[in-house]
Amino acid sequence: MVDDGSTDGTADRAEELNLPGVTVIRQVNQGKPAALNTGIRRARHDVLVLLDGDTIFEPDTIGQLVQPFADTGVGAVSGNAKVGNRQGLLGRWQHLEYCAGSNLDRQILHGLRCIPTVPGAVGAFRKAAITDVGGVSDDTLAEDTDLTMAVTRAGWRVAYRPQAKAWTEAPVTVRGLFRQRYRWSYGTFQAMWKHRGALIENGPMGRFGLIYLLAFHLLLPLLAPVMDLYVMYGFLVADAPLAAIVWTVFLLIQTASAGYALRLDGESLKPLWAYPLQQIVYRQLMYAVVIQSLITALHGTQLRWMSVRRTGRLLDAPGGTVHVT
After folding, report:
1. Angstrom distance (rounded) from CA 40 to CA 50
2. Which of 32, 79, 86, 133 would be 122's cystine partner, CB 3.0–4.6 Å?
3. Dihedral angle at the C-alpha atoms of 190, 282, 81, 10, nearest 10 degrees?
4. What's the pTM?
């Protein structure tokens, strides 16, 4: 456990527990990449499992997470990050986004061997792969995406293990959500630019990974608002009811896809009632995040790390309410 200059007393509590096999390492605040590198240097084994401080693993998560390393060509494995605090509309929307977006995408990208991100909440790396790329870089605000892309470009395969579940706390306010996604989006753009050389390499990251990020993390969020406005104009102004019909059919297809993703992830279909509203309201917020991130990047402004307030309660984690300290 690496204490990167924390001021909330967590490291003291961890030491007081005196748990076998747990070592607390303290350092002056240097940022998350430096903290990860400190832990990696101290680790003695060939396979390293990394997790964030606000994440809870299920009893078999680590066992599931390391299975793909039986293949000596695998350098990293992504686990299945799940929203633990799903109460309220905002929590349900983020739960749907994690299942119907991130986790479903990883299943597809796993087949194409071009997963761009092993999430910091639940991931494992072969130590040799991290050594190959020079450790965790602090060049971007998305150190997990940067590291994953570097590992893939170094010739290692990145796998996805959906059975390796981890419960994490999602932001509980719109402001907190915007700050988190703003950092993620900006960091992803930084990583894409840093690894743009992959486009001229004969590797899966250039053939598929960067194209996927460009299409679904930049172009689609920029073009989708224009499409929404076009539908509204056609329906309300141009007297073209077909526009609304096409949009409704598209929404039904998206909802069915989200239901399929929930089933693949072993989740209940009950939250699907919130999905149509998510596409109308929540999606607009994500558009604003991408647009602001792009403007910030084009201006050359250096965005700082923005922390999100945590409540420390995961109501839907295994065993009921869990308080994270």
Report:
1. 9
2. 79
3. 80
4. 0.90
